[in-house]
Amino acid sequence: MNPSSAPHPLFSNHKVVVLLASFCCLLWGSAYPAIKNGYALFAIAPDDIAAKMVFAGYRFAFAGLLLLVMAALGKREVFNLNWPRLRQVTTLGLTQTSIQYAFFYIGLANTTGVKGSIMNATGTFFSVLMAHFIYHNDRLSRNKVLGCLIGFAGVMVVNFNRELLDFHFTLLGEGFVVIAAFVLSAGTIYGKKISQTMDSVVLTGYQLAIGGVALVVVGYALGGSLTGFTLQSSALLLYLVLLSSAAFALWTILLKYNRVGLVTVFNFLVPVFGAVLSAIFLGETILEWKNVVALALVCSGIWLVTKQRD
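^ thats the sequence. predicted structure below, dont judge the formating
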């Protein structure tokens, strides 16, 4: 049997998938204003890519360690990795966390936040397309393609401003963000494969810890640092650690028991939640026309994709 077709009584339930995937995206959306505040609290300059890598590295490394501790306390098999399995989780951690974020931060430093957010949303297309060629029960269909296009339109609407009229494209800017999206999508497919024979929480823990440590090492090697630890900044970093551990663990579990296309389409919700939550914490108008329209488009696209049942 194809691993992606093995159901789970809870995590393959359609309503549970919708609720948990939406919750993960809500958590990731909340990271938008949290990371922005983190840059301010830790005095990280907008163009200081090395310091941003260190900041992200601490977040993911501690999130991974937290999951591994929880897995050990829950009597899960944490320390029985053989060399082939260790090689797999190391590859996943370095690609899906370290390399992906390195490309993303460099790309974002050479383009605008608006265009970066839109280019990053191309990852859903990559995931759906790769799943079509890998899993026999995850083929492309008219509804899936239409749903992805509508969801992507929602991402464009929530980021709509005059910058979208500038079609300037550079490899180090928009190109690197697209590469980051592709690397993340490839890592998602690879992680699903590993999760069929490994505990999802343990897998996520190792992936985040290894990838996070690599980001910290590279960040410091490039001259970055993380200073300014106070009660407020530490609490914010703790929140980012908790949301990362919860969201990534749940997402890995959902991908293990469901079709890639069914789960990854919810990623279109992340920038919408990010825009709304940023508006809340920045005191801006939440019910802007573009936020309402974007949410309607994204939800419509998700509905088109997820109404296809196995």
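The longest helix spans residues 14-41.
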